[in-house]
């Protein structure tokens, strides 16, 4: 095996990887598959560290201590600085819940399991991914776990098994198979976990330990393979998007592309190697690790600090800032440690690294224990920020796909009272609980509430098994209990039109094509809701359809808390009523037609309580946020609009009085 020489083309390849990731995260058009840059890094890492281990093994001087010390020099200093500065910036910018989550993510990263942490953080009410400053460290945890385990595996199999390369090949194929399966069955595990990502690193490892004869190729073949390899990477970067089932088989393009490039460029000078070895790309490649570390928190904190979104110029400024910080980190943090100008000894870098990481981990844990150091904020800003969190009482009444598929239904008011009513729907039905509970006690009525996050109260193909099982439970409950009235409440437009930002992932798709089509979604929604209402009416239930609250185009508590922190007015935020009416036009018309056709179908609309005569739908009242995000009412908001439920409760109360009178007459 020849000595591992410096290869400019590999630094150029790092530049392609980091540019793809950064441009993708900054939303540059055309780079919809830039996330594959991480996979390029994985293959490069697997190739380089295996080359180092194997070269030193053959020379008889491999040391686990030396290897892990080199990894510590490469990874820890810049990572520690980035996390430390993020904690400082978060102190001034972040709401308590988010600052607490930043601390939690740092605590998990210092023990190299942030990939596990973020894998479990995709719940219905979790902070959006683009507001998590440490989210990008998941890939570092995958690599760190590989660095800890792989040297032990390589040394063990190569010293005890004659066909040890075959063992590595089998491990790679098993990992690939697991990834290809999991991407359709457990996509979050396929994305975040080492066992499903290890094949990408092992692809680079196999190339590093390939026998010399197997690596040989002609100059013409080297040119062809290198061009093809670059082409595969670019096809993935430019052609993939958020709908691509990834990683799985789709990751073969960038992985095979990198393997081909490293292989071919290591044999003969190629045109691609000259391109990758250019001064600009090599320069970017040298700072790629530090730039990767800094680009994401810079973007997240920039979004967090902006009140009304980031302009193109602001995004460009943040892009440049992240590049400058990446360079400074490489020049003044990475360099001194890698060149052993600081903490030159192996034990000194490892011991110091462990001590500092433990300190950061304790700081992160302290933020969790202190609930994000809430006293940092002014009382007004704190009150807005705390609205972002749903109370345990509400969460305990909301089922979801994670760990709460079989939660018991919630009951309010005197349980022996008659008649009984059911409120059924998704999280918007659960958001009504404060008003339901208060009115049920006030009117002495028996209310049952059944809510499942992201689940329409009627079947459709896209429903998850948990949602279908939940609706089956509710259907059986309706058969078993003498409900006089059934209230249907949901974020209806989500299933018909998707999110306000255009994401149609949660909407009704055409069962024939599996794709979203607006006309088809409206038709299937009409048919599904109509069938459910008809069924309920046939069973003798009065049906109440609850229209949606106005959906905002921003996270309300975030914006209000940040405005309060800046001393700016908060009572001017909201949404024009015309926008709300336009989005709800088809659904409102459908509801009204159903109510006109059957006197047993009634409508309830919270919007008039939130929207004034000037056509403005408010989000704040007397220093309190009326929303918990951009679409769910807060406790204050629900109690503020409670009056819109009056027709429902008066009808129930009248029915209860009539029932009592009838009983007395019979007696």
UniProtKB/TrEMBL annotation:
SGNH domain mapped to chain residues: 397-645
One GO cellular component term noted in the UniProt record for this chain: membrane
Keywords assigned by UniProt, alphabetized: Acyltransferase, Membrane, Transferase, Transmembrane, Transmembrane helix
Transmembrane portions of the chain: 12-28, 34-54, 75-94, 138-157, 164-184, 190-209, 221-240, 246-264, 276-294, 306-328, 349-369
GO biological process: lipopolysaccharide biosynthetic process
Record keyword Transmembrane present: yes
GO MF annotations in UniProt: acyltransferase activity, transferring groups other than amino-acyl groups
InterPro entries: Acyl_transf_3_dom, Acyltransferase_3, SGNH
Protein's UniProt name: Peptidoglycan/LPS O-acetylase OafA/YrhL, contains acyltransferase and SGNH-hydrolase domains
PANTHER family: ACETYLTRANSFERASE (PTHR23028), ACYL_TRANSF_3 DOMAIN-CONTAINING PROTEIN (PTHR23028:SF53)
Alphabetized Pfam families for the sequence: Acyl_transf_3 (PF01757), SGNH (PF19040)
Domain Acyltransferase: 9-330
């Amino acid at each position: 095996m020849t000595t591992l020489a410096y290869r400019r083309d590999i630094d150029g390849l790092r530049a392609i990887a980091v540019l793809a990731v950064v441009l993708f995260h900054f939303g540059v058009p055309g780079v919809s598959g830039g996330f594959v840059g991480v996979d390029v890094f994985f293959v490069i890492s697997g190739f380089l560290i295996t080359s180092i281990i194997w070269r030193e093994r053959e020379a008889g001087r491999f040391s686990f201590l030396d290897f892990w010390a080199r990894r510590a020099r490469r990874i820890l200093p810049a990572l520690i600085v980035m996390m430390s500065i993020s904690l400082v910036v978060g102190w001034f910018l972040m709401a308590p819940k988010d600052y607490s989550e930043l601390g939690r993510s740092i605590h998990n990263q210092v023990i190299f399991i942030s990939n596990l942490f973020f894998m479990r953080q995709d719940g219905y009410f979790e902070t959006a991914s683009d507001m998590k400053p440490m989210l990008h460290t998941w890939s570092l945890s995958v690599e760190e776990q590989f660095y800890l385990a792989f040297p032990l595996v390589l040394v063990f199999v190569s010293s005890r098994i004659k066909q040890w390369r075959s063992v590595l090949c089998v491990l790679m194929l098993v990992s690939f198979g697991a990834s290809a399966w999991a991407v359709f069955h457990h996509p979050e595990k396929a994305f975040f976990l080492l066992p499903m990502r290890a094949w990408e690193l092992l692809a680079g490892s196999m190339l590093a330990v390939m026998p010399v004869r197997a690596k040989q190729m002609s100059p013409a073949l080297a040119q062809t393979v290198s061009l093809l390899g670059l082409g595969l990477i670019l096809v993935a970067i430019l052609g993939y998007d958020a709908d691509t089932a990834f990683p799985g088989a789709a990751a073969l393009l960038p992985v095979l592309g990198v393997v081909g490039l490293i292989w071919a460029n290591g044999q003969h000078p190629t045109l691609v190697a000259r391109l990758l070895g250019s001064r600009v790309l090599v320069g970017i490649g040298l700072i790629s690790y530090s730039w990767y570390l800094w680009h994401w928190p810079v973007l997240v904190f920039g979004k967090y600090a902006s009140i009304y979104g980031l302009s193109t110029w602001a995004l460009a400024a943040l892009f440049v800032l992240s590049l400058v910080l990446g360079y400074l980190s490489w020049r003044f943090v990475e360099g001194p440690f890698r060149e052993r100008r600081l903490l030159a000894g192996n034990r000194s870098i490892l011991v110091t690294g462990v001590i500092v990481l433990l300190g950061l981990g304790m700081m992160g844990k302290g933020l969790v224990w202190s609930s994000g150091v809430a006293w940092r904020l002014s009382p007004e800003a704190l009150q807005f920020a705390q609205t972002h969190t749903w109370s345990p009482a509400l969460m305990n009444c909301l089922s979801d796909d994670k760990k709460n598929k079989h939660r018991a239904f919630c009951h309010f008011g005197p349980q022996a009272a008659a008649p009984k009513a059911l409120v059924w729907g998704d999280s918007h039905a659960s958001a009504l609980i404060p008003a339901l509970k208060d009115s049920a006690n006030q009117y002495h009525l028996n209310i049952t509430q059944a809510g499942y996050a992201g689940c329409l109260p009627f079947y459709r193909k896209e429903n998850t098994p948990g949602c279908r099982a939940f609706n089956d439970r509710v259907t059986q409950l309706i058969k078993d209990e003498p409900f006089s009235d059934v209230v249907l409440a949901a974020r209806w437009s989500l299933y018909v039109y998707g999110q306000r930002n255009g994401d149609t992932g949660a909407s009704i798709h055409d069962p024939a094509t599996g794709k979203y089509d607006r006309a088809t979604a409206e038709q299937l929604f009409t048919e599904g809701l109509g069938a459910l209402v008809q069924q309920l009416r046939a069973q003798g239930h009065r049906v109440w359809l609850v229209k949606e609250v106005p959906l905002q185009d921003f996270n309300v508590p975030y914006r209000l808390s940040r405005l309060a922190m800046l001393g700016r007015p908060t009572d001017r935020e909201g949404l024009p009523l015309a926008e709300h009416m336009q989005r709800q036009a088809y659904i409102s018309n459908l509801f009204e037609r159903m109510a006109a056709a059957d006197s047993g179908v009634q409508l309830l609309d919270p919007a008039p309580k939130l929207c004034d005569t000037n056509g403005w739908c408010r989000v704040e009242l007397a220093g309190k946020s009326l929303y918990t995000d951009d679409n769910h009412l807060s406790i204050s908001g629900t109690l503020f609009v409670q009056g819109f439920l009056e027709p429902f409760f008066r009808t129930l109360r009248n029915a209860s009085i009539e029932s009592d009178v009838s009983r007395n007459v019979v007696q």
